[in-house]
Amino acid sequence: MAPSKVLAGARVVLPTGTATDGRVIVDGTRIAGTAPRDAEIIDVRGHWLVPGFVDMHNHGGGGASFHGTAEEVLTAVRTHRLHGTTTLVASTVTADLDFLSRQAGLLSELAEQGDIAGVHFEGPFISPCRKGAHSEALLRDPDPAEVRKLIDAARGRAKMVTLATELPGGIESVRLLAEHGVIAAIGHTDATYEQTAAAIDAGATVATHLFNAMPQLGHRAPGPVAALLEDERITVELIDDGTHLHPASLRLAFRHAGAGRVAFITDAMDAAGFGDGRYVLGPLEVEVSEGVARLVEGGSIAGSTLTLDRAFQRAVTVDGLPVEDVVAAISANPARLLGLYDRVGSLEPGKDADLVLLDAGFRLKGVMRRGAWVVDPQLG
Ligand SMILES: [Zn+2]
């Protein structure tokens, strides 16, 4: 077994605050409380140590998608690991139910092996009025029996379903998901304020990419944005890529919800960590130009090419958010929501040694997952 390591001298972001000249002890795959005498000391002064990132909404990367083969799924997972995401939920997009059930089976096996943390179904139970980059022909109302069939196909590994709760069967489906311990996420929705509030009362706990693919805030029709922001039971997903949200909208949501109720996601598609060009998102063609993904037909934004290291740096340096709040939104909050906070989401003894090393400018300089370097530390 590899000797214990002590990463020493960094600013370490802990749940209780930031320790200057802090240290993290790694023993095997876990974080330890005390270091043995023969531990290897790694001097990381001038750097930040933060928990590995947790992405609960991600469709792919590295030229591959979560609709692909097991090998393609792993390519996407590895790509995001190189950017600090040590825990990732694989998201599907709208497709026919038989395909989604089969893909859920494949993804559940990868979840059992520990490669991914579970499955998120985005569509097909979403609103044709707010379909974004989902295939309209394949959308359907959220029939609880079909929702049940999908989550069963994931064999206990379904973590979240995004649905338009105002559609027929929406509220019953939210109840069903809540009963089965699967997150009901409100998104791609045309709901009113009142309809959104009813879905929250039925058990919905997440807003899928708040502001995107839903009616905007109006002074007489506050819509889902106000209902989702004001309810303490909701965590709001935000895509901080500079394209999906203006920094002021992001700050507004962040300040209103508070750092405890925000989850940064990528909503990444195949081009993340790969490059511009032609791709497909489910059955639809996408053109990625200067890092922005749009449907070839209609021009809707079609996911992002974001990685969470860029979201982290942007949140601190462009949006001006405190580092501790960014850590909450990018690690701790999603880990808690997914029921994984006993293992990941903070740098505490007993947890998996999943961590990200950042320099003073918040550039990624190292990634460790379960005690092994995924990106070797680049110091100096
Ligand atoms: Zn998505």
From TrEMBL:
GO molecular function (one): N-acetylglucosamine-6-phosphate deacetylase activity
Pfam families: Amidohydro_1
CDD domains hit by this protein: NagA (cd00854)
EC number: 3.5.1.25
SUPFAM superfamilies referenced in this protein's UniProt entry, alphabetically: Composite domain of metallo-dependent hydrolases, Metallo-dependent hydrolases
Domain Amidohydrolase-related: 49-374
Top-level taxonomic group: Bacteria
InterPro entries registered for this protein in UniProt: Amidohydro-rel (IPR006680), GlcNAc_6-P_deAcase (IPR003764), Metal-dep_hydrolase_composite (IPR011059), Metal_Hydrolase (IPR032466)
UniProt keyword list: Carbohydrate metabolism, Hydrolase, Metal-binding
Protein family per UniProt: Belongs to the metallo-dependent hydrolases superfamily. NagA family.
Protein known as: N-acetylglucosamine-6-phosphate deacetylase
This protein's encoding gene: nagA
